[in-house]
Specification:
With about 170 residues, the chain is an alpha/beta fold. The protein contains six helices and six strands, in the order αβαβαβααβαββ. It has a three-stranded parallel beta sheet with strand order 1-2-3, with no helix packed on it. Strands 4-5-6 form a three-stranded mixed beta sheet, with helices on one face. This is D-isomer specific 2-hydroxyacid dehydrogenase catalytic domain-containing protein.
């Protein structure tokens, strides 16, 4: 998704080059000014092999694949895109929650054994969902939990244990 947005918004003066995965990356970046990596590792050797490099733009929330020290040593800014995949991660979180609540692994085993009447699990409506971390992903998880009829409590990194709050902002005692 982020990659297609970058391509759509690329200025006319910019040249987009997609690397040849059959060749060494270091041999393809000599005149590169901006690197937009995937979520795979970007070796420090690639940064060193790009003398004209001015920016590393990570089109994802995380940047653990970026050699930050190598970029910092050269004064190259590193940007990321926090929240770009928040909805997808939140949906996957709710999927796992539903699978656990409905005991999906046990039901799959019952089904594969040709039996009927596996465990039903529990209904999520009316249950309480605690979301630790109310950043972009946590907010999306809470929104989806509320859509399932769950009461959502959120705690962010600036909260103390006494600061649990509903996702709608009401303080909980």
């Amino acid at each position: 998704m982020a990659g297609s947005l970058i391509i759509e918004r690329l200025p006319e003066w910019a040249e987009l080059r997609i690397v040849d995965s059959t060749k060494r990356l270091q041999d393809q970046v000599a005149d590169t000014e901006v690197i937009i990596p995937t979520t795979g590792p970007l070796p420090a050797e690639v940064v060193a092999a790009a003398p004209k490099l001015k920016l590393i733009l990570q089109p994802a929330a995380g940047y653990s694949n970026i050699p930050l020290e190598a970029a910092k040593a050269r004064g190259i800014p590193v940007c990321n895109a926090p929240g770009v995949n928040a909805r997808a991660v939140a949906e996957a979180t709710i999927m796992v929650l539903l699978m656990l609540a409905r005991r999906a692994p046990e039901n799959q085993a019952v089904f594969q054994a040709g039996k009927v009447g596996g465990p039903l699990g529990v209904q999520l409506e009316g249950r309480t969902l605690g979301v630790i971390g109310m950043g972009a992903i946590g907010q999306q998880v809470a929104e989806l939990g509320e859509a399932l009829g769950m009461k959502c409590l959120g705690l962010d990194s600036k909260s103390s244990r006494q600061d649990w709050r509903t996702c709608s902002g009401q303080l909980m005692l």
